[in-house]
Design brief:
Blueprint (H helix, E strand, L loop, with lengths): L1 H28 L9 E10 L2 E12 L3 H29 L10 H17 L4 H62 L5 H17 L3 E4 L5 E4 L5 E3 L5 E7 L2 E8 L8 E3 L5 H36 L9 E3 L7 H5 L5 E7 L5 E8 L4 E4 L5 E2 L5 H9 L3 E6 L2 E6 L5 E5 L10 H5 L5 E3 L22 E7 L5 E8 L6 H8 L10 E5 L5 E5 L6 E7 L10 H5 L3 H5 L5 E3 L1 H5 L26 H7 L5 E4 L8 E4 H41 L3 H35 L1
Antiparallel strand pairs: 1-2, 3-4, 4-5, 6-7, 7-8, 9-15, 10-11, 10-16, 11-12, 12-13, 14-15, 17-23, 18-19, 18-22, 20-21, 24-25
Length: 700
């Protein structure tokens, strides 16, 4: 009996040593294999009836540290997020050019100001006029190009998001299939480390795409859950989908394995997907919005100076922009005075109509004025102009034309003001910079003004979290109540509007904006806007600049006036002088005061709406250009810093993980020697038992 015990002990020891040698051999041969985790043999003594009968191998396990693995996966997610963020934001920053170069985007506006200053010294020079217009065109064209490229980057980012989601689904399926292989190996006590290493590599790749929670399964393998705990893999693989529209923020949904259960939106706090979605939904639209705000204010200041001046000789017709308003509403709210003059080819005034918006009177050629109302403004203006001119208002645009041979129209803005703009400027009668859509969102509307939108039309809004997960979708119906206050009340309804998460408000210049007021920060998106202000008029989102589609397209809508481009002599470089004596010219050739005002327009304070990294501020266009350019550089530098920091943390976490999981040749050589000696010892025990058995046989 004792010889059998000896043989069993020696045999099990030899088998255990062989298993250990194979494990060490695998470790050494994979010392430089990426993702390989070293193996260790676990064994225990075999005891039968209190008698030791050798040893048995219970498992061959990978040497892992759960804490370091989780730290590495988290760091991997952060590094991937900020890496892709920095990559695309660098591309966006490069669109603006090198700040030290003459071609830097913000230098182009300075070139336009300088060209107007040069033209002021010689207003009759067609070359200087053409150069000034060319510089304005260059600035506006470059803004449009940058905006187009930003949108292209956005489309590239969106395509990459879809590709990443497809890859995530593949990884979840592969991880889930490997769970079955690992569980079978554990069940029959076989080596599953190969499958576990492959699975670990897939989990590492998955963590670079999105943040996940990893938990070991009791029977082998892992469970994968989203950040908030939604199961993605383990007992079947969930299917992820990317839900987005051009006008709303995107988010990720998970459909449970086998389609059992409801599809739900999941949180994506980290990983490459988070960085891409932040770029697509926040940073790139914010950059486009800020670019649009900057160009709009620069154009506004140029237009303010140009409307306050006149060409010499003045044009026969001044045609305004689309205001989106009816004339009654557009005229209401003006204060101060403004004067319309009809002049002959020599610049001598033929007729003046002085409009006093405070007293609501029109005076002709200095005579006491007759009364007018917003409803009768156009009729009274035509009566006042008489045979010298006429005014029309069509589709939201005001036009004033001179009647008679070679007569022209000039306007003295005086003290008139509404929504921060003077009379001619408000209607865009003599704009230098035109637009192909609505770009000025200070409408001048007040709560008591009629909103003008067709009752019964609907506006569908989506409220979402910062990460894109939807909070609520509401459909607002234009109310029967006629005023802006009624419309805002409908928008802010707590049942059919946004009242549960925020509120719309109308500022003193008629700009409509949404602010989150709920406990959960909410972002507003326009899903569908079926409203119209009058038949064929602008929608709510167009008139007030609501939603990412409207705001991000604004920078590409500006162009220099085609009329002026075709004939630079029509640039408004002169100023109407209403103090000129009768018979003396009120407009004189060589007057460069209008050109000087255009050159100085960048130094006139303007109120900028919140856009991009800047809130609502009042500053000059030139100062805003510096702030805007600096913010782009700071944002890119911050993204690079975050990327480098995250990559350093990931490198450190990976190094520590490798120190535990990786193969150390010195340690493996020690184990190799140990297993060799154990094998030899077991072999000698077998030989000794054989010799004893032979002696016993001979004795018998």
């Amino acid at each position: 009996m004792s010889l059998n015990v000896t043989m069993r002990t020696a045999t099990t020891g030899m088998l255990a040593a062989q298993t250990g040698l194979r494990a060490v051999s695998d470790n050494i041969s994979n010392v430089n294999t990426p993702g390989y985790v070293r193996k260790e043999v676990e064994q225990r003594p075999v005891v039968v009836n209190g008698i030791g009968m050798g040893v048995e191998v219970t498992a061959i396990k990978r040497v892992t540290d759960q804490y370091l693995q989780l730290a590495s996966l988290t760091a991997n997610s952060d590094a991937a997020r900020w890496g892709v963020y920095s990559e695309y934001f660098d591309n966006a920053q490069a669109l603006f050019g090198d700040p030290s170069s003459d071609t830097f985007f913000f230098n182009r506006l300075d070139d336009a100001y300088a060209a107007f200053a040069a033209a002021a010294d010689d207003p009759s020079s067609s070359l200087l006029r053409s150069q000034a217009l060319a510089n304005v065109e260059d600035f506006l064209g470059e803004a449009s190009r940058i905006n187009t490229q930003l949108r292209e980057i956005g489309r590239t980012v969106e395509s990459r998001i879809s590709t990443d989601v497809e890859r995530v689904n593949e990884l979840l399926s592969q991880i889930n299939r490997l769970n079955a292989d690992i569980s079978r190996a554990w069940l029959i006590e076989q080596d599953s480390s190969g499958s576990e290493n492959i699975q670990s590599g897939l989990v590492d790749e998955l963590s670079s795409l999105l943040s996940v929670q990893i938990a070991k399964r009791p029977g082998g393998g892992v469970d994968i859950r989203s950040a908030e705990g939604v199961k993605l893999a383990g007992d079947g693989a969930a299917t992820l989908s990317y839900v987005r529209t051009d006008s709303t923020r995107g988010y990720i949904t998970a459909r449970p394995a086998g389609g059992i259960g409801s599809t739900q939106a999941i949180q994506i706090p980290g990983g490459e997907l988070r960085g891409l979605m932040d770029l697509r939904d926040q940073k790139l639209p914010a950059l486009s919005d800020q670019l649009g705000e900057f160009v709009a204010r620069a154009a506004e200041r140029l237009n303010a100076a140009h409307n306050a001046a006149s060409a010499v000789p003045p044009p026969a017709t001044l045609s305004g922009r689309l205001t989106g308003l009816d004339l009654d509403t557009a005229i209401s709210g003006f204060t101060g005075t403004s004067t319309i003059a009809i002049v002959d080819p020599a610049g001598v005034v033929q007729r003046t109509v002085a409009i006093d918006f405070d007293a609501q009177t029109m005076s002709i050629d200095g005579a006491p004025g007759g009364p007018f109302t917003a409803a009768t403004f156009l009729t009274d203006l035509n009566i006042s102009l008489g045979a010298f001119g006429s005014a029309t208002f069509t589709d939201g645009a005001l036009s004033i034309a001179a009647t008679g041979p070679s007569r022209g129209v000039a306007i003295d803005e005086g003290t008139s003001m509404k929504a921060g703009r003077q009379f001619s400027h408000f209607f865009g009668l003599n704009d230098l910079v035109r637009s192909t859509g609505y770009t000025t969102y200070e409408t001048g509307l007040t709560p008591t003004d009629p909103h003008g939108f067709i009752p019964g039309d609907t506006l569908k809004l989506l409220l979402s979290q910062n990460d894109g997960k939807p909070l609520q979708e509401v459909t607002v119906t234009v109310p029967g109540g006629a005023t802006m206050a009624d419309l805002i009340a409908a928008l802010n309804s707590s049942t059919t509007g946004v009242g549960f998460y925020g509120a719309f408000s109308l500022d003193g210049n008629g700009a409509l904006s949404f602010a989150s007021t709920g406990a959960t920060p909410a972002n507003l998106s326009i899903v569908v806007d079926g409203t119209q202000r009058g038949i064929g008029g602008p929608s709510v989102s167009q008139l007030f600049g609501l939603g990412v589609v409207e705001r991000s397209a604004r920078a590409g809508r500006f162009l220099a006036s085609p009329t002026l481009v075709s004939d630079p002599t029509k640039l408004a470089f002169g100023k109407l002088d209403l103090t000129a004596l009768p018979g003396q010219p009120a407009l004189r050739p060589g007057d460069g005061r209008g050109a000087l005002a255009l050159a100085a327009s960048g130094d006139v304070a303007a109120r900028f709406q919140p856009a991009g990294s800047l809130g609502q501020v009042t500053m000059t266009v030139s100062r805003y250009a510096s702030e805007f350019g600096g913010s782009i550089g700071r944002e890119a530098a911050a993204a690079e810093t975050r990327k480098e920091s995250a990559q350093s943390v990931y490198a450190e976490a990976t190094a520590r993980r490798q120190a535990v999981e990786g193969v150390n040749l010195d340690e493996e050589l020690v184990r190799l020697t140990t297993y060799q000696q154990a094998f030899n010892a077991s072999a000698r025990m077998i030989q000794a038992a054989k010799d004893l058995f032979d002696v016993l046989v001979q004795m018998v």
